[in-house]
Amino acid sequence: MELGLLPALGDGIASLRRAGQASRLVDGYLVPYARAFEHGRDAGQRAFTRYADAARFAHEVGLGINAGHDLDLSNLAVFRELPFLDEVSIGHAIISRAVFVGLRTVVREYLEVLAAASGGAGV
């Protein structure tokens, strides 16, 4: 589900959660963010704001947040700052790049991007 749709579904999600019928996790569909990011960091940041608002809402109604679709070396650093983010699944991007540069190289590249995003703190 695209995270941006969550607020529109708010009352229904909250009702399902109270009844024990709702998912405990949202796996964010991030293609719109990735496409916006292709038009520049400012466009990506504007798209990210929409996801951040939705993530806050999801957290308020008791949902966890996973992300991964279309995150890669160029756009992961910004998305790492998503509030209440539980997990990022970037295996497809890692393996796709590893075909060309090798797994050791691509893992190092991702660790460097994540370390830079966190100000050098441990990943």
Describe the structure.
Helix 2 packs antiparallel against helix 3 and helix 5 crosses helix 6. Strand 2, helix 4 and strand 3 form a beta-alpha-beta unit. The chain is about 55% helix and about 10% strand. It has one domain. It starts with 9 loop residues before the first helix and ends in a 6-residue tail after the last helix. It is mostly helical and about 120 residues long. Strands 1-2-3 form a three-stranded parallel β-sheet, covered by helices on one side.
Structural class by secondary-structure content? mainly alpha
Tell me the major beta sheet: 3 strands, parallel
Radius of gyration: 16 Å
Number of strands: 3
- Work out the strand percent: 5-15%
- Report the end-to-end length measured between terminal Cα atoms: 27 Å
List the helices and strands and how they pair.
Elements: H1 10-18, E1 25-27, H2 31-37, H3 41-60, E2 64-67, H4 76-79, E3 85-88, H5 91-101, H6 103-117
Parallel strand pairs: 1-2, 2-3
Helix pairs in contact: 2-3, 5-6
Keywords for this entry:
single chain; 123 residues; mainly alpha; three-stranded parallel beta sheet; 3 strands; 9% strand
